[in-house]
From TrEMBL:
GO cellular component, one term: cytosol
Keyword terms, alphabetized: Hydrolase, Metal-binding, Nuclease
Matches recorded under PROSITE patterns: TATD_3
GO molecular function annotations of the record: 3'-5'-DNA exonuclease activity; metal ion binding
A Pfam family this chain is assigned to: TatD_DNase
Name listed for the protein in its UniProt record: Uncharacterized protein
Binding residue positions for a divalent metal cation 2: 148, 173
Organism whose genome encodes this protein: Coemansia interrupta
Amino acid sequence: MKIIDIGANLTDPVFRGRYRGKQVHDDDMDKMLERAHDSGVVGMMVTGGNIKESIEAIKLSRSNPSLFATAGCHPTRTSEIEKYPGGGDAYFAKLRELIDANRDKVVAVGECGLDYDRLHFSSKEVQNKHFSRHFELTEATGLPLFLHDRNTAGDFVRTIRENRHRFTDGVVHSFTGTKQELEEFLKLGLYVGINGCSLKTKENLEVAKLIPLDRLMLETDCPYCEIRPTHASHSLLPQPQTAEPANEDEWRMPESKRKEKWCGDCMVKSRNEPCTIRQVIQVMARLHETSEQELADRAFENTCKVFFKNVSHNF
């Protein structure tokens, strides 16, 4: 099984053992990447949420052949563009410079889009102003878009529709929308990224069933968006008291411990990581009444076609 995690926030300091500025345990990035590899994850897209994170994502991607990066500005970070020396022109010129200098590692423009759930970080006006600037980047570079949409009352779809001629492909990652929103995204030729947060409620599961396999991509959005015991999807996972393997190829979920009791070979409780994408695959395979292998293969093909057709890799 070959899997690509399209959304991994690996620049988060928790993967270096730091939580809220405090070093709690040793840097376990390498161990985390080993667990990902052992679970079948052959590629990860490290998310760039602003200039600083995009630089860090690119740097990290150069340390491991399985890692690649995105470059853009998350909607909740767009307020920093207003304060950037030289304003939006200078900010997006810097992003363009980063992309052009690292075409072998940057596979998407983004994360970009709109988020009306967190307007205390950035207003609707500012978000919309700078979301539109990302279409200049995708036009100039030919890269696909890594997109974010939260509770935007049609504004996101409207903006995509108005600019659809300016980009080749894109994925709406961490999808939690309605059946109507899914239908709108599919009509626009977009792909849909699914993680644990996409599978929280019974309503989420009903919509996830409707995603065509030729439009599906898989992600963890780690260190966030794990599948939790309170999620509707949790009942579709093997129960820990059974002796059954967690997946068709005998993969089992690694042991996890609280960060204060961390050991080198275990995961950290409540810190999601790429290997848990296997649980997303398991849930989605059951919803689609297909094998985990088939579902993973289809998502892998979609991801390679959109993001990796112009970069060298050994998948």
